[in-house]
Amino acid sequence: MNKTKQPLFHIVKRGEMPWYFSWGIRAAAIVLALVCCGLISTIVTSENPIQIFVTIFDGSFGSSRKFMVLLQNTAMLLCIALALTPAFKMRFWNIGGEGQALAGALASAACMILMKNQPNLVVLPCMVLTSIVAGALWGLVPAFFKARFGTNETLFTLMMNYVATQLVAYFSVVWENPKGSGNIGVINPNTMVGWFPEILGNKYALNILIVAVVTVAMYIYLNYTKHGYEISVVGESERTARYVGIKVEKIIIRTMLISGAICGLAGLLLVGGTNHTLNSAIVDGRGFTAVMVSWLGKFNPIWMILTSFLLVFLGRGAGEIATDFGLNSSFGDILTGIILFFIIGCEFFINYKLSLTKTSKKEEK
Amino acid sequence: MNKIIALLLALVLVFSFAACGSKPAEKAPAADAPAADAPAAEAETATLKAGFIFLHDENSTYDLNFINAAKEACAALGVESVVKVNIPESEACYDAAAELVDEGCTYIFADSFGHEPYMIQAAKEFPEVQFCHATGTQAHTAGVPNYHNAFASIYEGRFLGGVAAGLKLNEMIANGEFTADEAKVGYIGAFPYAEVVSGMTSFFLGVRYVCPEATMDVTFTNSWYDPTLEQEGAVKLINNGCKLISLHADSMGAPTECQNNGIPFVFYNGSAADACPDTYIVASYINWAPYMTYSMQATMNGEPIAADWTGTLENGGVALKELNEAVAAEGTAAKIEEVKAALLDGSLKVFDTAAFTVGGATLDSYLADVDDMGDFVPETEVISDGYFHESEFRSAPYFDMFIDGITNLDA
Description:
- The complex is a heterodimer.
- The model of chain A has no long low-confidence stretch (mean pLDDT 87).
- Chain A has 14 helices and two strands, in the order E-H-H-H-H-H-H-H-H-H-H-H-H-H-E-H.
- Chain A is globular and about 80 Å long.
- In chain A, strands 1-2 form a two-stranded antiparallel ribbon.
- In chain A, helix 1 (19-45) packs antiparallel against helix 13 (329-351) and helix 4 (97-114) packs across helix 10.
- Chain A has helices at 19-45, 49-61, 64-89, 97-114, 120-149, 153-174, 205-224, 226-236, 238-243, 248-275, 286-296, 301-324, 329-351, 360-363; strands at 9-13, 352-356.
- Chain A has two domains: 1-47 and 325-365, no CATH class; 61-304, ABC transporter involved in vitamin B12 uptake, BtuC (Orthogonal Bundle).
- Chain A is mostly helical.
- In chain B, 42% of the residues lie in helices and 17% in strands.
- Chain B has helices spanning 2-44, 61-77, 91-102, 116-125, 139-142, 154-174, 194-210, 227-239, 253-261, 289-301, 332-344; strands at residues 49-53, 80-84, 107-110, 130-134, 147-152, 184-189, 215-220, 244-248, 265-268, 280-286, 308-311, 318-320, 367-368, 380-381, 383-384, 387-388, 406-408.
- In chain B, strand 3, helix 4 and strand 4 (130-134) form a beta-alpha-beta unit.
- In chain B, helix 2 (61-77) crosses helix 10.
- Chain A binds chain B through residues 7-8, 35, 39, 48-51, 62-63, 65-66, 69, 177-183, 185-186, 189, 274-277, 279, 281-282, 323-324, 326, 328-330, and chain B through 2, 5-6, 16, 19-20, 23, 26-27, 29-31, 33-34, 57, 82-92, 95, 98-99, 102-103, 113-114, 116-118, 120-121, 137-138, 191, 193-194, 372, 374, 376.
């Protein structure tokens, strides 16, 4: 029929689709990712593929401790993703979550080290206050320049990450213990000054609870408050926002203060709640992974619970495979990379579809 | 073209169906296999499951030395092992330890100095598991009964390496390659703290034991593993007139440079006879297998493990790798045996106060910070009976003085 040669497939933009359809595609991508990981692991280890999938589940549900670690890691990733979401909603590309969380972590650690002889009643409130302020400040700087001079926030927030990393590296040497190690080590291991109390008999429970509260609060803030509405309007169109009398600069600065403050809170939870130390890798790339959590969750805090859980679950499973089958830890990273490739790639198939060229006429109805 | 693509796609489809199809078929044996294996395995090695935490992987000579020792010790005792590599000195070490406990390990070993606080943290949380940590300093004061340190009197091995180096210098002087007052050795250290300073001093004392005129230049990389910096350090020392090189850092950077320049060197942790056949003389190393065997055996038998264990020439914790006869001076093997015997019977002390001076003076007293309480306050007198008692009050080294004859190029 066609005289000119056409490619076998062509790409068509999809219209609206019901939510179960898009989540069906995502589920299919995860299944495919797991099959692919299973195949590669089978080839490398010559183990039974079923055994490999069992191992992935074992990484998260193998023991009650592993399950709590899964929840804790999910909570930390979710916390930073929640922090980034209001900024993203207003189309402010805050990729500085890593640095804002590090700033909070640095402030908490400073309180623990410098006030080691004070009672917890004094130290803990100081940690909460300083880390939230430090995170907010780290968010404020790029927001101020964006609002005042129209600087590029993507580059600015990214650069602020490196500043925070180097600051932490510097203080790791200043506060090193033991001397000569270049590491801070566990802070106040005996007096436990600045350590969060255990609740429900588990050291991770408090963190998880705090993040749960933040999740609900963020959901309400974005969907049912005037602030949340203003953020959406600025995100949709700055001009419309100006036209209806919204002060865009004010919204940018206010939203980034909140974004940075919640990142600072994440840093506080990491230092005071679980790790009780400080090093430049303490946030562990969550500032960047959180970007993905927020996007995949469509900026909806409730969906983001699911996406962060999924990413942590798959990541821990990949690590478990590397350990159980005696492979180098890099193998876990390879599997995580494959999984992320599928998850991000599937967004393409949600927005577009491949059609066989033969049937193209029908598509164009 | 289209047909080819269609064909390929079809193939992929068939392939993936085949992959999916084959799984259910394999399911039945898979489900049975673990159940059948587990009891059998338990019956055979109901003894011990050991977990190992290593800072890097086998590309680091330091970690490779541990990995080999772990393999040897586990094989000898029939112990099942779980290994975690590339574990940084951070809370990742605690996480790794906790995961190993989850895996059912009742013995956990970590190999890097900075792992210590996290090992102590894990030891407090899992009192039924034995935690052994190499190169740490706090076990004898931490008061955690299931946490243990180990190190070795590696200064004895370094001294023997120094003797081999000194003999080589003597041979080169005798051959007229340079004069006795030009006899200078170079040393590449990782960090300027006690572990490295103690090692370089004992190496230098070994050199001077046979070649009294020798001096030494030292440079530090401030990293345990950095091939480029270590190579640059070697270049710097060679340009500065060093005739022979030794080092305390973990990569092959410096040996490669020595091989390229025809400079003989004394290595550490492992043999470089294959990589550098024309310049490698000998290497001292800490053999961790005796300690691992001892501590795992004790764990199996429910016996106590020493809080602070020191490997020595006598118990096999300190040893030399193969001597490269092609490079070493004639009679080196015999001389090493002779000196080793003198060290073993105590007639020769490496840190004999008569053998060195600090700031022009002979030492008769020195306080070292043996009890590492985080206060950096030296509290223990370590010189008596005419020698510095290294690794006797605690396994980890505490000799941290720069003696006369050693020049720090970075100072």
